């Protein structure tokens, strides 16, 4: 896919995305949050950016949806009913609550009943870390990932994100899928006709495949594999238990499928490091610098690559956007009521 | 190492271990906790069991050590100074605090300044889950694990444990090392003269090795590898940031080495699921059963193997103990003052 790329000024990318979201039915505050998340992803080279807007009607408010509602609350926890709002809005609200409630200690927030993925967890992790928090955020999703060759898919790609403030630099943000390849990686291979990475997926017969047409997300056989063998399965199951069992999302075995139940779950744990230790950010910086310098040629750590791409884009003030995506955004704005 | 094995009644194993610990200087309550942890490990086939008592003087109270002291406390968090007590005593105290403080919400507890490993985190995770909590426990340790081939060791084997209650069965306990092989795995290969697993360790030149004599824990080159490539490195770094930076343990770059600083760190997050959702244990059971049944031949999940071994031992009422370890325990008891 030799996509033509246009370089778009950061401010223009945000304003245009926001206007396009308003054109499909969002109010300005909701449009602004979603535009910020997608432009931020595009800025750091993440594949969950403006491509989400390629089919704008899919980004419109879901019929019968409403703003997330806090349903259960204690001094240290909240559970949000996402009311079928997009994951981006519900998780942003959840992280904001977790930041506030964890001041001087720890708080946990669950989210269920959202209609779409929240995009990269890294953005939400970075927000919490910029607010001074150490944070663990997890997300589950429909049945894409099988626990072993030939198994029925059970897990989503079930990402785990850890973020914290670091003295003298941007926050440390580690955002990993517990699957061997993220869903957007599969979609990208499909779009570009490239093979899947080795040992990242099974066909319907339960054999390893690199042929993306063997993978029928949501039924018909074939599935993404877990990363990292039995440890990866354990991590995916941990995420499932936090996001579905604990946060109120659709529970495997209690619904026909998570896909038809349309309830994506998230779980957030936020800790105020000042409650536990003096000078956390400096301590974190020392650890990260020491690990990074532990090899003569340096060690590349989680987030380094994203930070480097973001730095380049922010310095030149523009981001590269596939022209066909940008054209859709402009067209959508033009159709605004 | 064709060790002769003796079958010891569970009660006798506990009482003898407790007496041996009292003989090397512990009071009864501290001896009882450590005996319980080690006998439980032996019961489920874990390699951090009674073998710890093979050199009993190493298990004596460290000179100048004292009972753990709570140094910082908020409504939702505590930090324990381990006062150079063993990890088993400090982490048990931390988990007890986390269980109590998390009632109706969430709590976090850090531990630093302990003199030894706590043994398998699974035991502590199970205690919290039996008390009804969803729990994440992490631990760091001295420099055994290198972030890439040829790098200086930075991390401990930095395990991560997740546990939760499950309706109708024992708790779900997932306890993984973020290293390719656990420290006791290396020591076992050394003792038995067997090669290390493939791609689990580097020699001093930074090449993969399966020769355990290439690994000089604590200096001299060679190191254990992280599991799971860059994701494993990210997980190990997350554990390091939670247990050293956040919990007050020795910080890489701020000490000559964690080994000489002798400060092992732990971090506990406990959540009362009743604060967030109704029927958590039944929801967890449904998820676990569905994943386990997702393949016609079943899927083996974390903890299954340990539970099966423990069931056999508990039903027959005895545990297999290497005779040379048991002989040491008996001798140590005989020397009691």
From TrEMBL, chains A, B:
Similarity comment: family membership: Belongs to the LDH2/MDH2 oxidoreductase family.
InterPro entries: Mal/L-sulf/L-lact_DH-like_ah (IPR043144), Mal/L-sulf/L-lact_DH-like_NADP (IPR043143), Mal/L-sulfo/L-lacto_DH-like_sf (IPR036111), Malate/L-lactate_DH-like (IPR003767)
Organism expressing this protein natively: Chrysophaeum taylorii
Name of the protein described by the UniProt record: Malate dehydrogenase
Pfam families, sorted: Ldh_2
SUPFAM superfamilies named among the record's database cross-references: L-sulfolactate dehydrogenase-like
Key words of the record: Oxidoreductase
Molecular function in Gene Ontology: oxidoreductase activity
Record-annotated membrane-spanning stretches: none
